[in-house]
Specification:
This protein is α/β, with parallel strands linked by helices. The protein has one domain: P-loop containing nucleotide triphosphate hydrolases (Rossmann fold, 3-Layer(aba) Sandwich), CATH 3.40.50.300. It is built from eleven helices and eight strands. The strands form two sheets. The chain has a five-stranded parallel sheet. β3 and β4 form a beta hairpin. α5 packs parallel to α7. It binds 2'-deoxycytidine-5'-monophosphate. The site of 2'-deoxycytidine-5'-monophosphate (DC) has 15 residues, from α4, α6 and α10.
Length: 253
């Protein structure tokens, strides 16, 4: 993940001595230094809006779901059992994942290999959801995500960003939409990528993942108490991003 020098400046959160000072510090921080968390279920539109929001604010976009998917791909390639927690954790700790954004496109590299398309299949969706329930896997991923966002200037999207990865993020969003619309979006996305699926299969996969991701023991998907809830049903990407930019500016300036 590459950052401009201006974005490399360390944030000075710990320098503020009182909550009042911290408030001042937050207000005076430039938009491109922020840590923004976007959580929510599959198909809520997180990736599209997170990418667009990051571009608007001059931040780096981090797709944490792609990290669990990349691990899933390696698990499959190496024939590892999704239940073998120790081996999964070791593998997760050894992974080197990089995001390279050029224009509108963000490509995902795992161990130097471009896995952008390979991780988007329904099989990888299921596998990512399944292995993400393991405590050891989550610990390794959270560590990697904190390291990636350590310097601020990031928009991270996932399931546990505002609750676990960055509980003190500057701004948190919880993005949701009616399940029928989320299923349709996921289906259209897969068809557009040339993946052969039917609507019923997509529906089952998405609802099963909703269930897995919200019912697992470790870091289940839930709205952080201080997250701003946004319903993206029947709303365009532009509308949602506009609302987010408004909230960010209100909170920070
Ligand atoms: O966002 P996505 O559909 O690419 O995520 C794939 C799976 O990865 C998701 O079903 C659950 C898991 N995941 C997670 O547990 N925590 C995250 N922060 C992101 C994704």
């Amino acid at each position: 993940m590459e950052k401009k020098t201006s974005e490399r400046k360390r944030l000075t959160r710990s320098a503020a001595s009182s909550p009042k000072d911290q408030g001042k510090e937050k207000r005076h921080r430039s938009l491109r230094q922020l840590t923004i968390a976007i959580d929510g279920p599959s198909g809520a539109g997180k990736s599209t809006v997170a990418k667009s929001l990051a571009k608007r604010l001059g931040c780096v976009y981090i797709d944490t779901g792609a990290m669990y998917r990349s691990l899933g791909l390696k698990v499959k390639e190496r024939g590892i059992s999704p239940e073998d927690e120790l081996t999964l954790q070791r593998l997760a700790l050894s992974l080197h994942i990089r995001f390279v954004t050029k224009g509108e496109q963000t490509r995902v590299f795992c161990q130097g290999e471009d896995v952008t398309e390979a991780i988007r299949t329904p099989e990888m969706s299921r596998l990512a959801s399944s292995i993400s329930k393991q405590k050891g896997v989550r610990e390794a991923m959270v560590e990697m995500q904190r390291e990636m966002g350590r310097e601020g200037g990031v928009v991270l999207e996932g399931r546990d960003i505002g609750t676990v990865v960055f509980p003190d993020a500057d701004v948190k969003f919880y993005l949701d939409a009616e399940s029928s619309e989320r299923i349709r979006r996921r289906y259209d996305e897969l068809v557009e990528k040339g993946v052969k699926v039917d609507l019923e299969e997509t529906r089952e996969e998405l609802l099963q993942r909703d269930y897995n991701d919200t019912h697992r023991v470790h870091s289940p998907l839930k709205k952080a108490t201080d997250a701003v809830f946004i319903d993206s049903t029947r709303r365009s990407v532009e509308e949602v991003v506009e609302e987010m930019v408004r909230v960010v500016k209100e909170r920070v300036h």
